[in-house]
Structure formats: C-alpha cells, structure tokens
Amino acid sequence: MPISKKLGPLAAACVLAGVLVAGLLYPVASGVGLVSNRAASAVENVSSELLNGTLPQVSTMTDAAGNPIALLFDQYRYEVGYNDISPDMVAAIISIEDRRFLEHDGVDWKGTIRAALKNSSSGEVQQGASTLDQQYIKNYQLLVLARTEADREAATETTPARKLREVRMALTMEQSLTEQAKRKGLSDAAAKQEAKKQIVTRYLNVVPFGNNAYGIEAASQVYFNKHAKDLTVEQAALLAGMVQSSSALNPYTNPQAALARRNTVLDTMIQNFPNRRDELTAAKAKPLGVVPNPNIPTQGCIGAGNNGFFCDYALQFLAANGISRDSVMRSGYIIKTTLDPDVQRSVERAVQTQADPHADGVASVMSAIRPGTTSHPVLAMASSRDYGLNQNADQTVQPQPFSLVGDGAGSVFKVFTTAAAMEQGLGTGSNIPVPSTLAVQGMGSSGGSNGCPADSYCVKNDGRYPASMSVSQALAQSPNTAFVKLLQQTGVKPTVDMAVRLGLRSYNTPGTSGDGDKSIAQYVKDGNFGSFTLGPFPVNGLELSNVAATLSSGGVWCPPNPIGSISTIKRDENSNAVPGPDGAPVLTTVPFNPPGCDRVVEQGLANTLANAMSFDDRGGGTSAAAAGSTGWNLPVSAKTGTTEAHRSAAFLGFTNNIAGSVYVYSDGPNPEGICTSPLRSCYDGNLYGGYEPARTWYSAVLPVANKFGPTSLPPQDPQYVSGNSRGRVPDVTGLTASDATARLQAAGFKVTQLEIDSPRPQGTVVFTAPSDSALPGSTITIYVSNGRQSAGGSNGPTQTTVQVPGVGPVVIDLPG
After folding, report:
1. Strand ranges (DSSP E) for 656-719?
2. CA nearest 523: which of 543, 493, 498, 544?
3. Which neighbouring-strand residues pair with 213?
4. Which residues pair with 440 in a beta bridge?
5. 641 DSSP assignment
6. Strand, coil or helix: 644
7. Rounded mean pLDDT of 586-613?
8. By CB neighbour count within 10 A (0-12 exposed, 13-18 middle, 19+ buried), where does 416 fall?
9. % of the chain residues with pLDDT over 70
10. 223 φ, ψ (degrees, to nearest 5)
11. Contact residues for 351 (Cβ-Cβ < 8 A; gap 6+)
12. Class of residue 795 by CB neighbours under 10 A (exposed 0-12, middle 13-18, buried 19+)
C-alpha cells in the first residue's frame, strides 16, 4: 500500500482528535462544523439536568398500614446509594467499561485517540472509548430526558457532533462535582474521589440491564432476587458484562454468550486485582446462578389484585388534583393511601359473599368512608367482580365502584327530599300525608298507563300504610306517595341541588344525562320530574357513600379522599438514603392539596336527619330483617332503595365512625331485572335494597364498627325536630270547616277539604294531614266529619276509626 494511503487514516484521526480538543474550547459555527452557539447553550442546559440527576423510579402505593398495594412505573428502577451497591459491582463495571476511570477527568484521552486510530485504520467502528461519565450522559439523555422519538434519535446518533457534546458535558460534570466536594472542605484528591463515587453510582442507577430492569438495584432483584449490596462477585460480573448489550447477552435467551461475557469481565478484574486471582478464577467456574424466570413485577393497578379499583381511583384523584399519572410513574413517590386493610378485608368478604363474582349480568359495589370535618378518607372499596383483564373469567378494570352506573339507588333519594324539606322548615317529628295513590301534573308523565292521565305522573304504594306518618316512620317504611307529595311541596330544584350538595357531585357534570350536553341535575330540573325522589337515575357508588359521610360529619362535605400522604426518600449526594434518628430513611413530603371541605347543611339538620333515619334496622324498617340476620345490634342511620323494574337496589348507612353504601345493579350489555337469593339476572326481578344490599352493609361494617371508637347517634336539634315556627300547623280539631280554613290560611298554608265518616258533629274538623308541622305555604288537608259513625268503628271514649277516601281506615285520638 502506498505510504500516502497508510497516512490518510492516521491524519484523519489526528484531525478528529484536534477537532475534539478545539471544540471543547470554542463553539464551532454550524455551517462549518459540529456545534453552534445554540447547541452550546443546549449543552449547558443538559449539564444542569445531569448534575441534578433525577431518575425515573418506581412509585409505591401502600395501604394505610404501609403494606404495598401497587408498583407504578415507566422504568422499573430503584435508586440506591453508593453504600448500597456491592463493592464487587463497582469494581466489575470499572474493570470492563472504564479501567482508567479513577485517573481521568471525565474523558479518557488515551482511549479516545487509540479508538480513533483503530476505527480509522479499519474503516469501521471497532472501539468506542466512552468513559463511564460519557456513557452515563448518553443513557441519561436517552432514558431520562428524551420524551419523543426525535429526542431518542438525537441521544443515540453516531455523529462527531454528539460525541463532542458528550465530551464537553462529561468534563463539565466531573469538574462541577469535584468543585462541589471541595466546597465541603475536602482536599483535591479526596474531592476527586468523592466525585468518582457519585458518577459511578449515577451510572449504575441509570443504565439498563434488560428484562425491563433499569439500574443495578432492579437488575439485582430481576436476576437474583436480592439487593444490589448483596451481589457476589460472579453475579456482579454477569451484570457488568450485560451493559454492553442487554439483549444479546440475556442469560435467559443466550446463556452461553452471557457466561462468556461474564468470564471476560472476571478476566479483566484479575488483571486489575491480581491479589484476588484465585477467588476470581474460581468464580469463572460457577454457573450463571440467575433465578429460573426473571423476577419482573407487574406494573400498575393490575398488580394490585382486587385493590385495583381503589388504586385506579387514587390515580384518578391525584391527576384531578395536580399530580399527573406520568409524574407518578416516574417520580419514585411513596403514596400512602387511606385504605384500611381491616375494613377492606371485611368489605370485600361481605360483597363477594352476597354476590357471586361470576354472576351473569349482576354486580355489587361497596365503599366505606371515615366521616370527618377536615377530610373524608376512603377506607375501603370493593366490587363483586374481580379486578383484572380476563373477561372470560368475568374480570373487569372498569371503574364500577366510582362511576355513574346502573338504573339508580331508588328510595335512597328520599333522603334528599327530606333534607330539602327540613331546610325549608319541616320537622322530623311532623306527620306527612300518605295517600294510597297520587297523580300530580307538571312533574313528568307516566305515559298514560294503568289508568294514569297522560299529562300526569302517577305513583302508588307497594303495601298498606296509615293516612299519615311521621318523617321518621316514613323514612323507615318508605311509602312512595308520601315522598312524591313531599317533593311536590318542596320543589324539584332544591331537592336536586340538595343531592348534589350532599355528595352526588357528578350529577352536575355536563353530558351525564344522555340528553345532549345536559347534566343529570339540569335534565331533572328542566323536566321537573317527580320521579327524582324515587331515584331512577344512574349513581356513582362512591359518591353515594360520601352522601352518608356528609350526613355523619354534621353536614360537612369533603371529597372522598384516598390519599394519606405522598413522600420521597431524602438522599445525599451519593444517592444514599439519609437516615433519621430511628435509622429509617428520612422522607420528604411532596406538596399535595386536594379540595377543601364545605359545610353544605346545618349541623342540627344533619344530626336530626341522622336520628330520623335510625329506625330502618328495627320494627317495620325496610332493613330490619337484614340487620337481624347479620347480628347487627348497634345504632345506625340507614335507608334502602329499589328501582321500579328491580334492575338495581341500594343501601346507604352510616354510624358516627363509618359511612358507606352498597349498590347492586345489572352490569350486562342488556340490563335486566335482578332476582335475590342468589343474586342473578331474571326477567321479573324481586330484589330490594333491604335484601342483599343491606345484608352486605351490615355484615361488612359489624366486624369493624367500633374500630374507630364507640358507635352512637348524634344529639338532635329541637328546631329540626319540631320544624320552624312558620311551618307549625295550627290545631284546628273541632273547629268548623270554614273557621279551620281561615285559621290555616292565616298561618300561610293552602287548604283542601275531605269529608269522612265520624261520630263528631257534622261539619267539624276531625284531623288534618299533615298535623304538627309542614312546609310553609304547602297544602293542609282538613278531614271534616259527616256525622256518621263508620261500620266497624270503635265507640270507645279515647279513639275512633275513620274511613279516609283513597286511604282506608285511620285510627285517631279523641279528647277524653
């Protein structure tokens, strides 16, 4: 070969080396070379990021006791400090990747020139000569800073420009870290050693090792199921060898290549540590020793089992309040949630006892919340469906417990009507009329079926009730006509607003009604639907539980909060966890400010309503049988509900310590009625809220009812028991119809009149409905005697039985 041809590659290599040196001193204009002033600025920006050294890490979600629920990550990586890495790992990686690491200042000039000469003479790239500093920079840009495909291409491009940028950043980084160490009073030599420890630690934390393992701690777990500090020399050598090409040297798919590379690493260590020759030679004879299958954890909520529903809700809550899913997946957070393991176990067991996870077309969901005036922590969340991706096994990842689903909570909505009426002046001690049937105009239409006028909404009771009942009795026995009548008097708008205020916040979300962009709340108010008090609209089970929590909290609404705290491990400059006085790592709190709490009804109203709801579990209460069958024997405020077609049913209950709801609904593609014992889809449903929903709640809460303190009812407020003075109904018994009408009208009420059989003087008032108190401006019905004793009536001196048209026999007290 002519001498000129032999010297050509050498000259080119020398020129390249000269350009690299010159490029470190002066930025070269882009038109003639490698890096512009703009690129130089970019180098400075990246150098700043490198010094900060933040890495994508695994965030761990735990329950309230600190037990892990889920691992959340984009890259499976745990950052560890220099002290938590095996010294053999440090020795192995330096030996194979950068043997002059402890001598150079970030760039191995000898190696760079040698590689340039070798590559130029061969006409292809055969040697790299990148130091650990440069490899760290390349990997940091690729795995941390690059967020787009263009970024990733720029981080890996094989151009002199990229090489120059890496060189400059490597020198800058090592110099900066050394200067930082000097400012702590270290000598030049000690400062350089400190900088080297930081760099090798950063490198081992960022580099990929294959099989989804990023960083040395994750790699140690994946391949050996141990911590990085516990690696043996042969294990360290295997991992050190894999960084060259984690795919080609995968010990599971190419064990022979991985073994050969491991032994090459051990040979380099023998050269560097001749005093360990015998030990390292013996290590070459050992097998790879990896675990049978890569120990790769499941990423995300899918790894949380049936806690996955709660996990999903927690992530949604974080995202809605400023901490994005992307941030969670990269930030190494410790997310301690409010999930109470005792309550969760009890809730999940009760739900899946009463509802078969594999029942076709039927799902049951329950959540439990701790009441309070500063926060409403979510204690538990469960579905009868298993959380998972296997639809053939009836699993689901749909947010069933915390989204609008089903046909509605039925008569549970009577609570909203009652609360709205109490706010307008109704007392819980008042009697309200209970007609056997009711047809109202201007409140929707029943479609003209079953004899109902086409322009009316008609409702009748399922069973027999007296002509009037106290509010407490009505809540426990749930006559439909009484509450539709009460809604008519109270108004649909304030009742819907009350439902939203107490907790059904998604009812204000546009588009939820199915009628264009209208929310459910707006749709109901626009239609003035009398059916609202019977709960025929989809509900969010978690929000329904929060209604219970709001009432149990004395009328204070807070968002159902799944987050207890968010923190990160505090680390020193060598990535070592900073220990606290007890030896445990010091945690740094991550700022997180969920929405605050609001008083939505007066405390006296909420407490008195809680007492009015406390008869459901006894006597003629709709959940008395369920309470008895589960052994429930504690004070409780509760309400059952069932939709007309039995396609969903609910139970809302709360004590002073735990609030929650159970919601059973048809979750198939074509909703059907639901039958009871066992829960199943059927054409003609017979499920009621007092059946499986109530049994689920009582059996779930009973084992943990006193975990947070004794169970009791709050004190009532006399104002809300008797109602305000404007709502008190004057006693007009014995007056003539005309005098009674005048007196009631003077008190601000409207009056209607019905004639009934009674031995009282003809034309005099026997009783009124309501009596005691009523909504100001509402209608009072006066029942006027026709002077005739009804057949079969009692002639006793203290009581009489009267026949009320449309109601039936009613026993009333007479003066003695």
Report:
1. 659-666, 673-675, 680-682
2. 493
3. 76, 210
4. 457
5. E
6. coil
7. 97
8. buried
9. 89
10. -95, -30
11. 364, 365, 366, 382, 383, 384, 662, 696, 700
12. exposed
Contact 616, 713 (CB under 8 A): no
311-356 pLDDT tens trace: 999 999 999 999 999 999 999 999 999 999 999 999 999 999 999 9
Do 400 and 382 form a contact (C-beta atoms < 8 A)?
no
Tell me which residue of 85, 99, 89, 83 sits closest to 236, measured CA to CA: 89
- Write out 234-291 in H/E/C secondary structure: HHHHHHHHHCCCCCCCCCCCCHHHHHHHHHHHHHHHHHHCHHHHHHHHHHHCCCCCCC
Q: Maximum distance among all alpha carbons in the chain?
A: 139
Distances (CA, A) of 696 to 384, 629, 646, 689, 805: 11, 11, 18, 10, 40
- Residue 38 burial (C-beta neighbours within 10 Å; 0-12, 13-18, 19+): exposed
More confident residue, 454 or 125: 454
Q: Mind listing the domains of the chain with CATH numbers?
A: 77-285 (1.10.3810.10), 405-559+594-702 (3.40.710.10), 730-814 (3.30.10.20)
Of 771, 747, 722, which is closest to residue 427 (Cα–Cα)? 722
Residue position matching structure tokens 């003087």:
761
**In DSSP terms, which residues pair with 816 in a beta bridge?**
none
Which secondary structure element, helix H or strand E, spans residue 329, and what is its range? helix 325-330
Render pLDDT for 128-179 as a digit per residue (tens, 0 to 9): 558 999 999 999 999 999 888 988 888 888 888 888 888 999 999 999 999 9
Count of H-run helices and E-run strands, the chain: 26, 28
Write the CA distances from 165 to 104, 170, 236, integer angstroms.
18, 8, 31
- At 638, list the tokens: 């509760």
**Bridge partner list, 60:** 71, 334
Average of per-residue pLDDT across 454-463: 89
Nearest alpha-carbon partner for 345 in 746, 2, 774, 699: 699
28 secondary structure, DSSP code: P
- Indicate the angle between helix axes 188-206 and 87-97, nearest 10 degrees: 90
Strands 750-756 vs 779-785: parallel, antiparallel or unpaired: parallel
Is the sign of the CA dihedral 232, 233, 234, 240 positive or negative?
positive
What backbone phi and psi angles, to 5 degrees, belong to 404? -70, 115
Q: Round the CA-based radius of gyration of the chain to a whole number and report it.
A: 38
Would you say 548 and 651 are in contact if contact means Cβ atoms under 8 Å apart?
no
Q: What pLDDT was estimated at residue 120?
A: 53
DSSP secondary structure string, 735-795? SBHHHHHHHHHHTT-EEEEEEE--SSPTTBEEEEES-SB--TT-EEEEEEE-S-PPTT---
Amino acid at 306: N
Q: Pick the range with the lowest mean pLDDT from 237-246, 646-655, 792-801.
A: 792-801
Of 342-351, 491-500, 745-754, the one with minimum mean pLDDT is 745-754
207 touches 215 (CB < 8 A): yes
Is the pLDDT at 201 greater than 60? The verdict is: yes
Q: Are the C-beta atoms of residues 401 and 355 closer than 8 Å to each other? A: no
Residue type, 455: D
- Which H helix or E strand runs over 696? helix 692-701
The pair of structure tokens assigned to 786 is: 């026709």
Residue 344 is classified by DSSP as H
Structure tokens at 782: 């006066």
Q: Rounded distance, CA 500 to CA 564, Å?
A: 25
* Structure-block tokens of residue 104: 């150079």
